[in-house]
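Lab notebook, bench 4. Still working through the backlog of constructs that have no structural model yet. Next entry is a single chain of 564 residues. Request: give me the structure tokens for it.
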Amino acid sequence: MGENMVIEALENVLKEALGTYTLDTVNVVKANRPDLCDYQFDGAFKLAKQYKKSPMEIAEEIVATLRESSYFEKVEAASPGFINMTLASTFINQILCDMREKSKFNLPKMEPSLTYVIDYGGPNIAKPLHVGHLRPAIVGESIKRIVSYVGHNVISDVHFGDFGLQIGEVIYGMQEENISIEDVTLEDLNRLYPQISKLCKEDEKVKEKCANITKELQDGSLEYEKYYQKIFDLSKKDIVRIYKYLDVDFDLWYGEMDARVFIPLVEEILLNKSLAYHSEGALVVDVYEDTDSKEMPPLIFKKSNGAYLYGSTDMATIYQREKDFQPDYILYVADTRQSLHFKQVFRASTKAGITDAHLEHLGFGTINGIDGKPYKTRNGQTPKLDDLFKEVEELFVESKETNKDMSEEDRRKIVGSILKFADLQNNREKDYIFDGKKFSDVVGKTGPYILYTYLRIKRILELEKYKGSKLGNCIYNAYDRGLRIQLLDFHKTILSAYRLRLPSVIATYIYDLCVSLNTFYQNNHISGLEDIEKKQNWLFILALAKDMLKELLYLLGIEIPSMM
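Model written out:
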């Protein structure tokens, strides 16, 4: 089966029902009026032009054949030529049984299996992680899980920023304060970076000294290498701790420095192919194309002082990834504002022929506060991630008296759900407003609401001591039917999120499914139900929905607490 088992089955039966009519593509869509039908087909309009008949006449001919199919409870032609299809209970239930019995709910595996390298996170060494680092971690982790779930081989790389001026600034600060490599602490790094960075803006001589230290480190200075390694180790340990809090992990913990040995090789390729040339002392690569409607500046590969830039290390990293993994795709989850940079790097890499991979920049917007401006803490500062975690946890604990009695691990998972669902319910390309109080509530489109729904269904199944059963042919009411129809969209949801690289597709489906589950539960009382067959049928559906929710939450990186 393809992206949607139901739609593929309906399209196949429609192709047969066309008889002597010929249509290039047969497209069935889910109805936007579920009170009228489940699915619709509008091909009669195209056929009407081709065969010089009215759409309604053709629709009625097709419907006459479709009525013989066991797939439908009702199928009818609707003016001015639509074909409305309402599925038979037996058809719905057979697909749900197949989903229940098969791995990944009978999700079709993508063929062939491709190799993806996904670059996300991108924290800078020697700088504390702040709210701006949240989105690449959350969005990137979800995209990684989605791509892997559909059957591809995925290699994730954090890609540390450890090649830039901030390293030189921290080394300069350590030397100025006589802080030895052995004695430097994370607190020193967090203090020195903003302090020396500010000084560089005020004193050109200090900035030049920091730039020279950075250049010597890039050139392989053994003295500065020792400083770098200590700074890197301290920073990485703290970054790993914060990512662990968010349940974010990587296959590779590489940085720009890991690719530096490939920079001369890439430079040689650019020069040999006459792609790079000197301009005002710098080595640049033209990436302008005739189709560009806006100015496209050249990529600066090497500065006039011989120092390399992000473009240089990004190209070297692409070269390294091609050499090590021969990927089919390399995805970059990074701020939308870096789109020009990635266009330059991708074009230069393609011209140089250093990779055959498809290169994609998956941009994301910013997190804003309720005032619509970049998110700040209560005291008006840009929050470090640690501070944001504490702030959100406090808001959740304050929302209900018993929340303070939860275990630390459960509170961590709930904080993660608040942050992640607030983020991933939005199209990643858009900015969004983070309202901590709103997103901490168990009512509304929030992480706690989703988790509460899951735990509620799990509790019902535990109380009923459900061990599994067969699904009969009956569907008992509209709430029951609505939930079952919604479960059929699992495949379409996963594969749409994969193809669009949009976790928001899954987040929307999760919320809608939870609304349907709660509506079903409120209108169909299972406890004490004397009709055993009906009870077992409903428990089957709840168990299937619960297991689907668990998988979907995993794809968003949301962990499930033991209680709420």
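Notes after review: The chain has a mean pLDDT of 94. The longest helix spans residues 222-245. Flag for follow-up if needed.
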